[in-house]
Amino acid sequence: MLLSSFVNRKENRQLIYAKMLDGSFPVFSQFGNNIYASDIVQNCIDCIATEISKLQPRHIRTDSNGIQTTPKSSLNRLFRFSPNPIMTTKDFLEKVIWQLYFNYNAFIYPMYDTVTDQRGTTRDYTAFYPLNPTRVEFLQDESNALFIKMYFSGGNDFTLPYDSVIHLRKKYSVNDIMGGGANGQPDNGPLLKVLQINDTITDGLGKAIKSSLSIRGVLKIATMMDDEKQKAERTRFEAAINSSESGILPMDLKGEYVPLNIDPKVVDKDTMEFVQNKILNWYGVSLKIISGTFNDEEYQAFYEKVLEPIIVSLGQAFSKTMFSKRELEVGNEIVFYQRDMMYLSTPNKLKLLEVAGAQGLLTDDQKLAILGYSPLADGTGSRRTISLNYISVDIADVYQLKKAGSKDNTQGGGNTGA
């Protein structure tokens, strides 16, 4: 939508289709079978996208001594609140994950200005835009440099260097470039079969309930009647039903009521759970994760199986595209940090504080954040303490040396006296 102003650059360059190892043409449509009409599928993807949207992306730099710093860069400015003018960081991450699960491929375009100063030429990043092309083609020029041509639903198409686009892939397997199946689309065949069974079960359950509430019996009228007399007789019969308080229906010799014993069959609970669990297992999301009734261990399993691979992929894909080889070599990278462990139960939060706090790994403000409190108002929350009488980390070594020296002097004096 906003790309036409900055990416549609025409160059006098001869491009041909990139050569695929299997001999196929690298042209991929982004539309697969619509599995997303299922409420279970939508709930699963929504859980994953919502959790990923809580991440805090950061540009960090690690020096040769392993010390990490957070530079005051344009990247951190964008990552903090708003990667582009129409999205917050949460919106941005959530949209990227939805597109990744819709298409098994997600494309992000980083917009930047080139700045030249005494340090050389650098990039000043101004926005990140998640893209939603309907079709992509991979091309190459005379030097075998790879390009991506994207077609959009509005009729526009843009050709960009592939290394200037952040490309996330899911189930990257048989295709050389795209995630998903051999055609670069989601390979949802096995899931579609299960969804069809689930839809049949759900539809049958609705029909069974409806049938049980509809016709309950047949009124046989012993005489020949025209339509008007039949209607009048039915009205009289219904009035008799409505006026009966004892459950006994009075009738004359002209009519006979024959009850219909309707016994609708529905699928048993175990079968329904089996079908639904197959859908949930496809996405690695349990019912407790969807309902929010999980415990710490269940969330940790969900994190390690589903969220962690996405987090690793995000960090590597962003770092690979955002930085040159030289910048990567000197320790620049993008890391997607989790928020404080707010999902932990109160006993496990206290256990975390006891272990991590005793080692001097957390500041006072970080400890307060884990418990849900605001930072210290006097600004002293950056202090770290350890379990050595909870003194400042800065003087712990001096304290230990003094204590060791005092002990040696005591032992020496005892030996002299002996």
From TrEMBL:
Q: Which Pfam families match?
A: Phage_portal
What InterPro entries does its record include? Phage/GTA_portal
What protein name applies here? Phage portal protein, HK97 family
Q: Provide the species name.
A: Sporomusa malonica
